[in-house]
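Deliverable D2.4 — example input (C-alpha cells):
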C-alpha cells in the first residue's frame, strides 16, 4: 500500500476510534450530535458511520419516543462487535467479565481463592479464561487483568495478603488458542480503579486526578488527562509504601514506616489492642457495621487522621484538581469525618487551604478495578491499527 493511501487509511480509523469513544462516553448520542462534537460534516459522518456498520463496530437504532416530532436514531455499539475479556484477582476471590464497546462489564464467572495455593488459583483462572474465549472466539480482542498487588509488566511483584512474590502472570493467556493473537494487559487494581474514576466516575472531566483505594494497605494512581502515570515499568502508585507511618513498624513489603500500616484493618486492630486480623478488610468492614464503642470511635479517629494527613501530603506533591476515594477509604472517612477533614486541612500547604481540592467518594465502588480493566482493554481495541485489523476479518467489511 502506498504511503499516501496508508496515511489516509490510518486517519480514517483514527476518526473511527474517536467516534467509538464518544458513543461510549455519551450513550444515546445521535449522528448529528456526534458529528458536531468531532467537528466533521454531515456527509463525512454518514460515510464514517456506514464504514463502521459494515465492519460490525457501530449500529443505529431508534431513539426513545419523546412526544411529537420526527423520529431519530442513536448510535450504539454493534451487537457483533469486539469485546474485552476482563479478569480481576482480588484479596480473596476472582471475577471474569466481558464488555463490548459500551464499556459495561458483565460478570460471567467467579471463584474464591482464600484457601488455595497460587498454582491452583492460576490454573483455575486460566481455565475460566479459556472457556470464556471459546464462547465468543470471533469477538474477544484483548484480555485485560486487574491484580490486587504490585505489578511490573507481566509480573506480580508482591501480593501482600498471601505472601506471593515475583510471579509471572503471562501464563493466564495459556487457555487461549496459540493462534488467537489476543494481547494480554495486566494492571494494578488501584491504578485501574483510578482510570475508571477519571474517565467515567467521580473525577470525570478533571485534568489531573488522584485516586486512592484502601483494602489491605493503600494504593492509588495519578491520572493526567485520562491516562494513569504508570512509571517506568508499570509499578507506580504504591502510595501505601511512602514512610508516613511509624518507623518502628516493618511492613511486609520490607520497608519501615509504611503508610499502609496506619490506615487499614491492621491499624484498627492495633489501636484496639487486638491481634492482627487474618482478613484485615473483613475485620474493618465488621467494625464499620457494629455499634460503635468509645474505644472503637477513637481507633477510627486515629486511622482517619492518618488517612487525611497523608492525602494532604499527596495533594502538595501532585497538585490534583480532585481526589477520589475507593474501597475502605470511603467508610473510614465516614466513620470519623471531623478527624479526617482536620488532618487533611492541616496537611496542606498554606496557599492551598483556602481552596483545597475536593475529596470525593468514587462512583464505581468495589467494581472500579474491573471497570478500569475494561477501559484499558478498550483503549487497545480502539487504536487505528486494531480497528483496521478487526474490519479486515469481518465478512461484510
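Example output (designed residues):
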Amino acid at each position: 500500500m502506498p504511503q499516501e493511501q496508508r496515511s489516509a487509511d490510518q486517519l480514517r480509523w483514527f476518526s473511527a476510534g474517536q467516534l467509538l469513544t464518544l458513543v461510549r462516553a455519551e450513550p444515546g448520542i445521535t449522528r448529528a450530535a456526534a458529528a458536531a462534537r468531532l467537528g466533521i460534516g454531515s456527509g463525512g459522518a454518514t460515510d464514517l458511520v456506514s464504514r463502521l456498520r459494515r465492519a460490525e463496530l457501530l449500529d443505529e437504532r431508534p431513539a426513545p419516543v419523546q412526544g411529537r416530532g420526527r423520529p431519530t436514531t442513536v448510535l450504539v455499539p454493534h451487537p457483533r462487535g469486539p469485546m474485552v475479556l476482563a479478569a480481576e484477582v482480588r484479596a480473596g476471590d476472582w471475577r471474569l467479565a466481558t464488555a463490548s464497546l459500551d464499556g459495561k462489564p458483565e460478570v460471567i464467572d467467579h471463584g474464591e481463592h482464600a484457601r488455595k495455593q497460587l498454582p491452583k488459583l492460576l490454573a483455575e483462572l486460566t481455565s475460566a479464561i479459556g472457556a470464556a474465549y471459546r464462547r465468543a472466539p470471533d469477538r474477544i480482542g484483548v484480555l485485560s487483568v486487574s491484580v490486587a498487588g504490585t505489578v511490573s509488566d507481566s509480573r506480580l511483584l508482591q501480593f501482600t495478603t498471601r505472601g506471593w512474590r515475583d510471579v509471572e502472570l503471562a501464563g493466564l493467556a495459556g487457555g487461549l488458542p496459540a493462534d488467537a493473537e489476543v494481547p494480554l494487559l495486566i494492571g494494578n487494581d488501584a491504578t485501574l480503579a483510578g482510570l475508571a474514576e477519571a474517565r467515567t466516575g467521580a473525577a470525570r472531566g478533571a485534568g489531573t486526578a488522584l485516586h486512592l483505594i484502601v483494602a489491605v494497605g493503600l494504593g492509588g494512581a495519578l491520572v493526567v488527562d485520562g491516562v494513569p502515570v504508570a512509571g517506568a515499568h508499570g509499578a507506580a502508585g504504591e502510595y501505601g509504601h511512602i514512610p508516613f507511618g511509624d518507623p518502628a513498624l516493618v511492613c511486609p513489603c520490607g520497608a519501615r514506616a509504611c503508610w499502609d500500616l496506619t490506615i487499614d484493618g491492621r491499624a484498627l486492630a492495633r489501636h484496639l489492642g487486638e491481634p492482627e486480623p487474618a482478613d484485615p478488610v473483613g475485620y474493618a468492614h465488621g467494625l464499620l457495621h457494629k455499634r460503635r464503642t468509645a474505644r472503637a470511635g477513637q481507633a477510627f479517629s486515629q486511622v482517619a487522621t492518618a488517612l487525611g494527613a497523608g492525602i494532604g501530603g499527596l495533594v502538595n506533591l501532585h497538585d490534583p484538581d480532585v481526589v477520589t476515594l475507593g474501597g475502605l477509604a470511603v467508610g473510614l472517612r465516614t466513620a470519623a469525618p471531623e478527624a479526617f477533614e482536620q488532618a487533611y486541612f492541616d496537611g496542606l500547604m498554606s496557599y492551598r487551604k483556602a481552596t483545597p481540592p475536593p475529596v470525593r467518594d468514587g462512583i464505581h465502588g468495589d467494581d472500579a478495578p474491573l471497570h478500569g480493566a475494561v477501559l484499558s482493554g478498550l483503549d487497545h481495541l480502539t487504536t487505528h491499527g486494531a480497528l483496521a485489523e478487526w474490519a479486515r476479518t469481518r465478512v461484510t467489511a
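The domain at 223-361 is CATH 3.30.420.40 (Nucleotidyltransferase; domain 5).
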